[in-house]
Amino acid sequence: MPKSKRQKIVNLTKTSKKGKEGKDELVSLMREACDTFKHCYIFKVNNMRNNYLKDVRNEWNTSRFFFGKNKVMAKAFGNSPEDEYKSNISSLSARLVGNVGLLFTNSEPEAVLEYFNKFEKQDYARAGIKANETVVIPAGPVVRGEDNEKFPHNMESQLRHLGMTTSLVNGVVTNQKPHTICKKGETLSAEQAQLLKHFYYQMAVFKISILSHWCDGKLEILAEDEVNNEDAESILGKLGVLEFDLESYNVDWMKKYKGKSEIVLRPKSVQEVSEVLKYCNSENLAVCPQGGNTGLVGGGVSVFDEIIIQLGRMNEIRSFDEQSGVAVCDAGVILENLDNFVGERGYMCPLDLGAKGTCQIGGNISTNAGGLRLLRYGSLHGTVLGLEVVLADGTVLNNLSMLRKDNTGLDLKQLFIGAEGSLGIVTGVSILTPKKPNSVNVALLAVPNYEFVLENFKLAKSHLGEILSAFEFFDSKSLQLVLKHLNQLRNPLPNTEDSKFYVLLETHGSNFEHDQEKIEMFLEAAMEKEFCSNGSLAQGEGQVRDIWAIREGIPEACGKEGAVYKYDISLPLKSLYSLCEVVEKKLINDKIYLPNDFENSLVKQVLGYGHVGDGNIHLNISAKQYDSRVLNSIEPFVYEFTKKNQGSISAEHGLGVMKGKFISYSKSDEMITVMKNIKNLLDPNGIMNPYKFLV
Ligand code: FAD
Ligand code: MLT
Ligand code: ZN
Q1: From residue 143, how far is each of 174, 195, 636 by CA, in Å?
Q2: Interacting residues of 497 by C-beta distance below 8 A, sequence separation 6+
Q3: In which element (H, E) is residue 464 found?
Q4: Cys-Cys crosslink for 688: which of 351, 599, 662, 683, Cβ 3.0 to 4.6 Å?
Q5: Which residues line ligand 2 (CB under 6 A)?
Q6: Ligand 1 pocket residue status of 354, Cβ below 6 Å
Q7: DSSP letters spanning 170-214
Q8: Is the CB of 332 under 6 A from ligand 1?
């Protein structure tokens, strides 16, 4: 293979530059490659596996590979003889269809074809591939592989979960009756693919097929791409939305949940979403809807290799009515962008949360996110006026109503608010936005104990009732963590180290002097009653932002400290913080948390913060790493405590993969049955976000 000093592999999806800058860079790198290399080949990857592709790239490291958006790559070549970069190279542009890449090299076609014709890697099939043989697991003790290896007993429940009739008989995994994993020619579901892997059946072949070759103005067709074959990749690839660099889609915000999706689709329209779901439903292919991937319960990443449908390209604001404040937009619009858009028109989003720069309105609706001002502006169940949703079979339910009142029949949209992608994909949203307040005041109080946090809340309601827009609290451990990890922030209340708690309260009103007077009176009263040891009223927008940055920075700081076990629990106010105290005690009793022996302690600390105004605490257990000993000490203890105290195991983050199996701590069997019936009605094949939520 010829060697060159100019080695470079470019994958558009890996370039850090986004948007126009990234596209321009790809165009210029491709043109540089046109000038450097003699040959350009179009290739197609069958059964994409990143590790094998990496091997190929390493072996061809003197050549250049490009995986980019077909449209951008075509632009680099030119789309017609008039604008083509090299003689007749626009003929390659026309062949950039579906799941293809480019290889620029100085190697002659014989060498290239010889290498790629031989290069094949057998691997496990994933969902969407057709089975190449029938596989039946007989009744009796379950074995696998050529050596009839016994199945590990701790995997029995997984097999059962995947549809087999196994049980443990004297510690041996035993199949009650023969189980047909798949029939030859059948399209594999995620469960079937998983079972085949457990039984060591490799049915996929990673292969790169060279399709076309361009050299010195001449185009040679070496193989026809089977764009019409009905496998998942080609159908979905025709949408032009396949992505290759999947790491960021497969790992959640906390880096706690990792999926194995090999296909991420980023549709641009409701029609594309409908086409994809219709196809997936007909082929029994499981999907995982994904918004901004800021969810905290593992709902937005796949469990196995479900196809991820990411809504980021559906990011248009469709309309805004300046009279009523109703905004209609695509589900993939980032919350902050929506807030800025309506903000420029004198309105604000009723929902605000620390992840606003990344999360999407469709994700917010699907988790029924609560956020920082629910106390004042209410939940999405009230502010969402209508939704456009694509059901599992591709049916589009269009109910983008802009009406505040509509009593015709069942209010179907409510089903999808908080459904966590289990019933369909939200593609459009109609939401009522309130007027932006003329005056905003923010105060931070240092509070000696939790009882006084509640006293301050009562006092704030009586002094500030109609203008109170947020009442948040955090313990001093949370503050210390923020100051440790977010260097740009400082404590606005220095010398308050003795205070165990801090309260952030905010007012939204219409008259600044009037509001300030009220909040000052509140502060005076709180100080007089010694409900707080110190307090600070933000002067100007900068200080308002700085105080909020501390509260909003807590999740980020927890993430920077290490592994974090997060619980978002609703409880009656009187027992809100005691949750943190009893869990800390339990961890100490179980010798999982050794406060005086940091080296041997699995847990670093236990801290709490949250939305007092909504009766919602965020218990965070910071640990050195994710470890089953820590988890076993916390769960189900934390859920038992919640149930005993009439709380809910999820106040706002949802169930996801984390809490699906614990739903019965908050809902009765009858309610769970009705939920499951609704799920079966709307998604009879169970393709929507399986293994989570209702399990
Ligand atoms: P994702 O994480 O991508 O998905 C979340 C769930 O919704 C998944 O089950 C997914 O399958 C589903 N889903 C996503 N989009 C769609 C769609 N279009 N159609 C159907 N299903 C879909 N949450 C709060 O409630 N309050 C807070 O104050 C809060 N603060 C946060 C602060 C930080 C720093 C972080 C990281 C998270 C915070 N969260 C909070 C959690 C999270 O941001 C919210 O749950 C948010 O609503 C998730 O939106 P997303 O677009 O990131 O969705
Ligand atoms: C918050 O209120 O900050 C969020 O819900 C995120 C979290 O719980 O960490
Ligand atoms: Zn929260």
Answers
A1: 9, 13, 33
A2: 476
A3: helix 450-464
A4: 683
A5: 354, 554-555, 566, 568, 618
A6: yes
A7: TTEEEESS-EEEE-TTPBPPHHHHHHHHHTT---EEEEEEEEEEE
A8: no
Pair type for strands 439-447 and 140-141 = unpaired
Atom of ligand 1 nearest to the CA of 291: 3
Taking only the tens place, the pLDDT of each residue in 94-144 is 888 777 899 999 999 999 999 999 999 999 998 778 899 999 999 999 999
Gap between the Cα atoms of 677 and 559, Å rounded:
38
Question: What local confidence, expressed as pLDDT, does residue 610 receive?
Answer: 97
> Whole-angstrom Cα distance, residue 322 to residue 337?
17
Residue 363 in contact with ligand 1 by CB distance below 6 A: yes
Q: pLDDT tens digits for 196-221?
A: 999 999 999 999 999 999 999 998 88
Residues whose CB is less than 8 angstroms from the CB of residue 517 and which lie 6 or more positions away in sequence, other chains included: none
pLDDT digits (tens, 9 = 90+) for 612-648: 999 999 999 999 999 999 999 999 999 999 999 999 9
pLDDT above 80 (res 7): no
- Position 2 scores a pLDDT of 31
Host H or E run for residue 534: strand 534-537
Report d(CA 669, CA 676) in Å as an integer: 10
State in Å: Cα 228 to ligand 3 middle. 48
Spell out the residues 6+ positions from residue 181 whose beta carbon is closer than 8 angstroms to its own. 135, 136, 137, 192, 195, 196, 199, 201
Ligand 2 atom index nearest CA of 372: 2
25's CB contacts (< 8 A; 6+ apart) are: 15, 17
Residue 429 and residue 409: Cα distance in Å, rounded? 20
E strands, 602-672, are: 603-611, 616-623
pLDDT at 222: 83
SS3 for 542-581 is HHHHHHHHHHHHHHHHHHHHCEEEEEEEECCHHHCCHHHH
* Residues whose CB falls within 8 Å of the CB of residue 496, separated by 6 or more in sequence, listed in order: 446, 502, 533, 534
Atom of ligand 1 nearest to the CA of 289: 11
Task: Please check the confidence at residue 16 and state whether its pLDDT lies above 80.
Answer: no
pLDDT in tens, 235-246: 455 444 454 568
| Percentage with pLDDT > 90 across the chain | 80
What is the model's pLDDT at position 47? 85
What are the tens digits of pLDDT across the range 325-383?
999 999 999 999 999 999 999 999 999 999 999 999 999 999 999 999 999 999 999 99
**What are the backbone angles phi and psi of residue 658, rounded to the nearest 5°?**
-70, -45
Q: Smallest Cα–Cα separation from 359: which of 267, 314, 295?
A: 295
CA-derived radius of gyration, the chain: 28
Q: Token digits for 607?
A: 């801290």
Of 618, 620, 621, the residue with max ligand 2 atoms within 8 A of its CB, to mutate for a pocket test, comes to 618
